[in-house]
Specification:
- The protein is of the alpha+beta class.
- About 25% of the residues lie in helices and about 25% in strands.
- Mean pLDDT is about 85; it is low at about 75-80 and about 90-105.
Length: about 375
């Protein structure tokens, strides 16, 4: 499948040459093999360089627009034999100089929180965050130099960012290295700084980031969004954005792993006689069957009504904990009926002191005494 050079650089087909160069600067910094250790980064860097080698040349770009890759001949990448030479031409300085040192820099990681409810745990959740981060300056493409100019390789350190000092000792010549005082360790000197970023190559921005929270997420777990943290001044590897997920407490359900637990109060009659009861679930309402003689502390399990696992698989259960409620506001008629019920079952509900007197009187009258 042929490569779309415009799509590779993320620009429109009618973009300007400056937009092409700015897009290449941004992508080449990100995917340079000395910077990005992700799988496929080197192949991506080669694709970006190949696209730029064509689109940065007006004649080749015109042939590509008319005939595609077939119009470029056997070497669509042009006469730049080494993609790193192309990189050096755009950024200035050799790979052993400024950029090799800058590749060691890494931006600051950022931390944010997102709060979701249980429904978000069941279905997954997509949130939009406004993230305050240090991003590459769009005006200069992160170089720090004003339009029409480029950073110059530092003459003192040769673009290395460090200088070496040698001194003779009894043990021989000792060499020490220190940060270059001329360029501050950047390896380049900006003679004409960009007005938007004051030569730093980065600006503070507020950016909207879409965060996809997968189903089954646990409270306190974090999601990592690589490269969405701060970009270091002078170029390098951007930090990461970490999203800590908080699951809001539910009024009814308590989470234990993938299971959801809830309490259900039953009346004495429901527990004794059995009943069909409607209970809430995270998927709506469901009916459960209460068996006759159900006791406090028993549980009824609803398989598949709990929460999903983070990496897929069957959902947990909803566990209903039964609590038989003893009535406290009986009427006289209800008390009488309950007393009859107790006597029918052979239960004597009188206090012990009354039972002794009653038994003695009963024996006297019946001739048992």
């Amino acid at each position: 499948m042929s490569q779309d050079y415009y799509e590779t650089l993320g620009v429109s087909r009618d973009c300007s040459q400056e937009e092409i160069k700015r897009a290449y600067r941004r992508l080449a910094r990100r995917y340079h093999p000395d910077v990005c250790k992700e799988d496929g980064a080197e192949d991506r860097f080669k694709e970006i360089s190949k696209a730029y080698a064509v689109l940065s040349d007006p004649q080749k770009r015109r042939r590509y627009d008319m005939y595609g890759e077939d119009g470029l001949g056997a070497a669509p990448g042009g006469d730049v034999n080494n993609i790193f030479d192309l990189f050096d031409q755009v950024f200035g300085g050799g790979m052993g100089g400024g950029f090799g040192r800058q590749a060691q820099q890494r931006g600051r990681d950022l931390q944010y929180e997102v709060t979701i409810d249980l429904q978000g745990v069941v279905e997954g959740y997509e949130a939009e965050l406004e993230v305050n981060r240090q991003a590459e300056c769009e005006r200069c493409g992160g170089t720090g130099a004003a339009e029409g100019s480029m950073p110059q390789t530092c003459e003192m350190c040769g673009g290395r960012g460090v200088v070496t000092h040698e001194r003779a000792t009894l043990l021989g010549v000792m060499a020490t290295t220190s940060t270059c005082p001329n360029c501050g360790g950047r390896g380049t000197i900006i003679r004409n700084p960009c007005g938007a970023c004051a030569g730093r190559g980065v600006v503070q921005t507020a950016q909207r980031v879409n965060v996809k929270i997968p189903p089954g997420i646990e409270d306190g777990q974090s999601l990592r969004m690589a490269g969405q943290g701060d970009m270091p001044a002078g170029g390098g590897i951007p930090g990461d954005l970490y999203i800590t997920v908080r699951v809001a407490p539910h009024d009814l359900f308590t989470r234990r792993g993938r299971d959801l637990h809830m309490n259900l109060d039953l009346t004495f009659a429901q527990a004794a006689l059995g009943d069909t009861v409607t209970v809430p679930t995270v998927d709506g309402e469901a009916q459960i069957e209460v068996s006759p003689g159900t006791q406090t502390g028993e549980t009824i399990r609803l398989p598949g009504m709990g929460l999903p696992a983070l990496r897929g698989g069957q959902r947990g259960s909803q566990v209903v904990h039964i609590n038989v409620v003893t009535p406290t506001d009986l009427t006289e008629e209800q008390r009488r009926l309950l007393m009859e019920f107790a006597l029918e079952r052979g239960e004597d509900l009188r206090p012990p002191e009354h039972r002794g007197l009653f038994d003695r009187l009963r024996k006297v009258f019946t001739g048992e005494a």
